[in-house]
Amino acid sequence: MLRIFATHRVRLQTELSSCLWDFTTMPEEGAEPVRMKVTVPSCWENYPGTRTYRGRACYERSFRASGNIRLEFKGVSHTAEVFVDGESVGTHYNAYTPFSSVIRNLAPGIHRLKVCVDNSFNSRSALHVENDYQTYGGITRAVALEELGNVYVTGVHVTPEKREGQWRARVEVGVRNLETQPFCGQLRLTIAKAGTEESGGAALAVEDVSQVGAAGRSVDGGAAVCLLELAGDGEKTLCVDICCGEVGEWNPETPVLYEVSAVICDGQGKAVDDLVDRFGFREITVRGKDILMNGRKLWIKGFCRHEDHPQFGCALPLAAMQQDLLLMRDMGANSVRTSHYPNDEIFLDLCDETGVLVWEENHARGLSEEAMRNPNFERQCEDCIREMIGAHYNHPSIYIWGILNECASHTEYGKGCYERQLSLIRSLDRSRPRSFASCQFKTDICFGLADVVSYNIYPLWYHDTPVEEYLRDLYDWVQQTEGAGKPFLITEVGAGAVYGYRTPEKVKWSEEYQADALEKQLKAILAKEGVSGVYVWQFCDCRVCDSWFHVRPRTMNNKGIVDEYRRPKLSYAAVRDIFREC
Ligand code: ADA
To answer: Percentage of the chain surpassing pLDDT 90?
Structure first.
């Protein structure tokens, strides 16, 4: 499944995943390759014979198409090289962000698609390193084949804004001409309540359209229509400001979704390409120590979640994703942190629909200054940020962008990296606050760069300082830094428990100890003046990389409130009692 709704009504889109692909490992000299038919998306750690395979493998299948095509990969873990009929058409690094290749003038007929995937750790890979979660191998998210005409919509970003009590939508549409001949036609924009247009409902009345940068504007039956002129091989972004009149707002309790549709019509008025996406009317602002959505203070009760499941690795199917959300909601949570990378967009779609607030972050965990000095680090982080924001900009559930979990925010070199990445985010999206989860206890020097101060803390697990005392000390120190007066979130707190290990003595690793620790931690944090909320580390137990075995019983990070099969531990009831009450 590509998304939980159709993103095209004009452009022909076929899902290439969801069928059998030929899978072959490409082992080092001498070893026999493993071959089998597999479904995509999936992780090869879940196939027989490749459970511990780290290296290169390829996935192949045939497809029928002609003319201009676009192949979109929602996620390949972690490095991909894509070939069509034996010719390389694109490469990509990072499991957690989408990428695409456009191939022109394909001859009509059957073609062979081959994706070489590499999940090995090496010096070129600055973000996928041996870590406290697993880096899987495979085509782990959906793949789409799209047939394009001469011109197509490359992307649509909608920024809702309330001005003088009126909701407006600033719509930026990227368009591209693949031909050498200039193109002259129209771009039609429609905003409608999600689901209603297809079922014959009316588009929103557009009261005013003002277009920046391109010629021609008019209003036509509830849709904004712009003249579209593109030079041969040209690309441009059109920006249209639409006054939307009466709309329902997106709030966690009432997650009303709207749909934006951008349709390109040729000179005769025939629709030749389109892109549909969803968004919600909501604004996020920071006022003093509060994060506000539509003027109301957000009070975060959340879980950090890894995309991880014993049967599916990081390639969770829709049902498993929604079940995770149901469990989190059952515990009274209203938010999820996509620790420590951008998530599958289907999961974000589900959050949009169910009103779950999302902290989404770029891909990095616990990198020292030395690791951040890897010559590829900056570029790989920048690509990840651009691809994350480019793809996920419209999701109303995302209320904050995070970067660089627990990296070197206490050193001058690290500060330079935080500064560049947070500025990049600001240049790509001015509508959301930015933060990073720090573990630099009273030594962080980057709070002046962020809109929200966030800390990961582990009293009662990695040390025995009472929670209130530890938090007071930290919070008071932050008030003497450039983080003073900013919203303050606890982005991780938790304790480990091995599922099924129960003992009345409440020793560490028992379910009793974890439940007790969580109760103390959450009560202290939620009672602390100035705190905007908390994320429990973590929703479910997750597999870790092999080299972490000596600090992680069962080679799992066992701080889940449910285990890897989503079986509740004793802490489930403890967290639920607290989250539901406040
Ligand atoms: C850190 C880190 C998490 C996880 C956690 C733990 O805070 O951000 O990824 O490793 O510690 O379990 O110790």
So the answer is: 92
Strands 488-492 and 531-536: parallel
If one compares 203 and 339, the residue with the highest pLDDT of the two is: 339
Separation between Cα atoms, residue 70 and residue 98, nearest integer Å:
13
Pocket flag, ligand 1, residue 406 (CB < 6 Å):
yes
Q: For residue 42, give both structure tokens.
A: 């999936």
94 φ, ψ (degrees, to nearest 5): 115, 120
How does the average pLDDT of the chain come out, rounded? 95
- Is 492 close to ligand 1, i.e. is its CB under 6 Å away? yes
Residues 293, 256: Cα–Cα separation, whole Å: 14
The dihedrals phi and psi of 52, each to the nearest 5 degrees, come to -120, 15
pLDDT at 207 over 60: no
For a ligand 1 pocket test, name from 409, 492, 498, 514 the mutation site with the most ligand atoms within 8 angstroms of its C-beta. Answer: 492
Closest Cα partner for 253 from 174, 356, 119, 342? 356
Q: Is the CB of 50 under 6 A from ligand 1?
A: no
Contact (CB, 8 A) for 432 and 283 = no
Task: Tell me, using a 6 A CB cutoff, whether residue 552 lines ligand 1.
Answer: no
Q: Tell me the CA–centroid distance for residue 208 and ligand 1, in Å.
A: 49
Indicate whether 220 pLDDT > 90. no
How many Cα atoms occupy the beta-carbon half-sphere of 162 within 13 Å? Answer: 15
0.85 exceeded by pTM: yes
436 lines ligand 1 (CB under 6 A): no
Contact assessment for residue 62 and residue 113, using Cβ atoms and an 8 Å cutoff:
yes
Residue 573: which region, alpha, beta or left (left: phi > 0; alpha: psi -120 to 50)? alpha
Cα separation, 114 vs 83, in Å, equals: 5
| Ligand 1 geometric centre to CA of 292 (Å) | 28
C-alpha 454 – ligand 1 centre gap (Å): 14
- Mean pLDDT on 174-199: 88
456 in contact with ligand 1, CB cutoff 6 A: yes
Residue whose C-alpha is closest to residue 292's, from 300, 301, 283? 283
- Tokens coding 547: 């080299």
Nearest CA to ligand 1 atom 9: 132
Strands (E), 320-479: 335-337, 357-361, 398-403, 434-438, 452-456
Give 552 Cα–ligand 1 centroid separation in angstroms.
Answer: 11
- Could you say which DSSP state residue 70 is in? E
Q: Which residue from 415, 474, 480 is spatially nearest to 450, judged by alpha carbons? A: 415
User: Ligand 1 pocket test: which of 127, 129, 132, 454 has the largest number of ligand atoms within 8 Å of its C-beta?
Assistant: 132
Q: pLDDT digit string (tens) for 135-186?
A: 999 999 999 999 999 999 999 999 999 999 999 999 999 999 999 999 999 9
**Integer Rg of the chain from CA:** 24
- Which candidate, 525, 427, 440, places its Cα nearest to that of 478? 440
Structure tokens at 71: 């192949």
Residue 444 CA to ligand 1 center (angstroms) comes to 17
Question: Is a pLDDT exceeding 70 seen at residue 219?
Answer: no
| Pairing verdict, β 56-73 and 76-77 | unpaired
Q: How far is the CA of 510 from the centre of ligand 1 (A)?
A: 19
